[in-house]
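Changelog entry

Holo records now carry the ligand SMILES as an explicit input line rather than a separate metadata file. Below, a converted record for zinc ion, shown in the new format.
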Amino acid sequence: MPIPCTRCRGHYPIAANWPDGPICNYCYQQAKRTRGTCGCGHTGVLPGVLDGHPVCRRCSGIALNLDCRVCGVEDELYRGGRCQRCELASLVDDLLTDPQSGTIVAELAPVAVALKAMARPNSGITWIRQRHVTAFLEGLSTAPTITHGSLDALPASRTRDYVRALLVEYGVLPPRDEIRIRYRQWTTEALNRVHQPAMREIIDRYVRWHVLRRMNQSETVSHGAFLRSKQTVTVAIDFVNWLSNEGLGLGDLRQGHLDHWIATGSTTRLIVDRFLGWAIASRLATPELTVPKHRRGTSRRLSAAEQDHALQVAVHTDELSSRDRALAILVLVFAQQIENIVQLRWDDVTITEEQVTIRLADLEIALPTPLDQPWRDLTVNPGHDQTAAHPHSNWVFRGYTPGRHLDSATARDRLRRTFSARAARLGTLEQLSRLAPVAIIAETLGYHPATIERHAAASSAGYAEYIAAIDDAQST
Ligand SMILES: [Zn+2]
Ligand SMILES: [Zn+2]
Ligand SMILES: [Zn+2]
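Structure line, unchanged by the conversion:
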C-alpha cells in the first residue's frame, strides 16, 4: 500500500514531496491551478496549504516553477515554460507566419491580435489545435491577399465560414451577405438535379426571376427565408422531374396528374403551389389548376400535459444547456417569440440576489427562482466566448458566427428536440388566457402560489403589465 497523499488522503501516485507532506498527482495539478491572494498580500498562484488556507510559494516554502519564460506572469506553465496566454500567442504566430517570408501578412495582423486576445486562452488553444483549424490557418498564412474570393477558393468548411466572419468582425474584409451567396451556390447545384434540359431552363427562370428577386427585395436574407426558398425549389424540382418521367410537359399538366402526385407523397408536396402559381402567371401551365392549401395557419398547440413535460425538462433537468433552458423558459412560461428572445442584450437583463428581470418586447419579465437559474449560469459562461468571435458582444445568445446573435431558426431547431417553440407558445397563450399565469407557474412548478405572488409583487408591476398585454392581444 503506497503512502497516502497528505492533502486528499487518497492512495494515488505521489507527484511531489512538499513541506506539508507527499502530494498526489491530482492535488499537485490542483495546487498549480489554485489562485487567490495569500495572507502575505501576494496575489497569484497559491499552491501551498497552511492551517487549511491556500498560501503562496514563499509562505509555503514550495519550490515550483510558475514564472512564464516569456511574460514573467505567475501561472500554470505549458509547453516551453510558457503561460497559457503566451502559449496561445505562440501557436497563433506559428500558424499565421508565412514560412517563405517568415512574417505575418499585414492583412492578418488584426486577426492575430484577435485570436491572441481570446477571453479564455485554454479554450483558444484547444480550438486552434484541432487539425482542420490548424490546416486552415496555415493555408491562410500563405494566401497572397485575403479577399472573399481567396477564401471562396479554399475548401468549404465551418472553419472557413467562421474565420471569414472573424475577418469581417475585425474589419479585414467587408461584410458580405453570406446567405444570399450560399443560396446562389446551392441553386447552381440544385439545377443539375433537373433531368430534362427544357425543365432545367424553367426552374432556372423560376429561381432567377421569382425567388432571387424576392430575396433581393430585403436588405438581408434571414436563415429562415433561405431554408424556405431551398424547400420551395426542391419541391419544384421533384415535381418537374416527376412530370418528365411521366412524359408530360408543364403545358400538359391537368388537375388529375397534380392530385395524384400530391396524394402519393409527403405533405411537403403541397408547397408546389408556390412554383405552380408562378408557372400559371407565366402562362406555362393552365390556370385551371388548384393545389390544396398547405395548412400553415392551423398550427398545433402543445396540450397542457405536453406543456408541463416540456417545462419540467427546461426547469428541472440537465437535458438542455443553460442557454437552451433560458430560451425555453421565456417561450414556455412567458409565451415570448424566439425572434425577440435571440436579440436580447445583457443591457436588457438585471440580475440581483433576489431575482432576474428581463426587458423583452416592452415587457418587464421577472424570473423568480428556479426560473432564474439558467440566467445566472449564463452570466458565468455565456457560451462561444472560448473563441475570439465576440470581442465586445452584448448579445445574451451569442451565435456561432462572430458578432452575431444566435439565429432564430437555429434556436428553434435546438429547442425542437424538446418541443416545438411555436406549438409551445400557442399552448402557453391558450393557458394564460384561461388561467391566471401566477396559478399556472405555481402549479406546473410545484410552488405555492403565495411564493410566486410575492416575487411578482417584488418585480414592480411586471406581471400585471404582462397580463394586460396578453388580454389586449386576445381581445383584438
Ligand atoms: Zn491528493
Ligand atoms: Zn504568501
Ligand atoms: Zn506568459
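Spot-checked after migration. Residues 467 and 473 are 10 Å apart (CA to CA). Residues 68, 70-71, 73, 82-83, 85-86 surround zinc ion (ligand 3) (CB under 6 Å).
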